[in-house]
Amino acid sequence: MVSCLSLSTNSLSEKIAFKKYRRGIKRGCIKRPQILPTALRDGFGLRVFVLSDLHTDYPENMAWVRSFPTKRHNKDVLLVAGDVAEMYDNFVLTMSLLRDRFEYVFYVPGNHDLWCRWERDDLDSLQKLNKLLDACRQLGVETNPVVIDGLGIVPLFSWYHESFDREEDITGIRIPSLDMACKDFRACKWPGNLSNRDSSLALYFDAMNENNQDTVKQIQSTCSQIITFSHFVPRQELCPEKRMLFYPNLPKIIGSDWLEDRIRSIHGIEGSSFACHVFGHTHFCWDAIVDGIRYVQAPLAYPRERRRRMNGGETWLPFCIYSDGDFSGRISPCYWSDYYAANPRTPHNTQLAPWVARFYNLV
């Protein structure tokens, strides 16, 4: 029997601040951020690259990882924001290849990483999580907060909950249930009282971050620049509107309010010019500033999704977010998810919708 970890008590002032922050997000009143282009800069010091949703169970994706040059990034940092591979052997191979090519590799687990459909051992998803974390330790892949050349990097464990969705539901059309649309409900195996059907998993994974609170506090006191990263989405504004989505109920299975609270506890309620959070999961290319924090997603995604992108979706990956003491990065091509987020009143085009928001294995 596994019970949720207990959360440590925050200070009264922090609780009041978070309650005021939460009240500012009302159902049906999601304010969309402006998509901001980034500047390409050449740095001679530390560089941080980000990548998510590698899905190297697909041979094309594994071949893409293998094609990485072995020397080009050997002094760089790579943040891998989850969904590396469902198969354990593919996970280990992928992380080994990345570790050979980057001086530092960081990782947080995604939902596909914890699927148990093909496990030789009869493992549940938490046991598989521990198996993946053990593999990371053996490979030299970081899963805990670390300071590198004065830059704080904080991996954050997370899971989604249905109440994260505050946008009004789409009505008048038939929409498949979450159980039918999301394979997590069948491919993950949770022990005890943990379930995708309530907030227990979101609370459990968020509580795992408490083990690193002392390290995070040290990072806050010594580092002016901090990058946090997770697999799941911390804010609903980081997903296109439901009317633009192939599956309108997608926001119910993507994010966590507790994740955003934890990000704000690290970067500050109002954020700062040096605050950055990296995420994954939805396969949308994203780079926006919301309430003082830069949010970035750079997914490799599925081969079929990359073929639908304007430039194939491979030439700009991995995406650079930090170079030589300043947050920078390549100018990413304009994707329809970015266009719709920046222009929320654009009329819905049903011919574009299926590839604008093709989520992971919905079928």
Automatic annotation (TrEMBL):
<protein>
    <submittedName>
        <fullName>Uncharacterized protein isoform 1</fullName>
    </submittedName>
</protein>
<dbReference type="InterPro" id="IPR029052">
    <property type="entry name" value="Metallo-depent_PP-like"/>
</dbReference>
<dbReference type="InterPro" id="IPR004843">
    <property type="entry name" value="Calcineurin-like_PHP"/>
</dbReference>
<dbReference type="GO" id="GO:0016787">
    <property type="term" value="F:hydrolase activity"/>
</dbReference>
<dbReference type="Pfam" id="PF00149">
    <property type="entry name" value="Metallophos"/>
</dbReference>
<dbReference type="InterPro" id="IPR052963">
    <property type="entry name" value="Pantetheine_PDE"/>
</dbReference>
<feature type="domain" description="Calcineurin-like phosphoesterase">
    <location>
        <begin position="46"/>
        <end position="136"/>
    </location>
</feature>
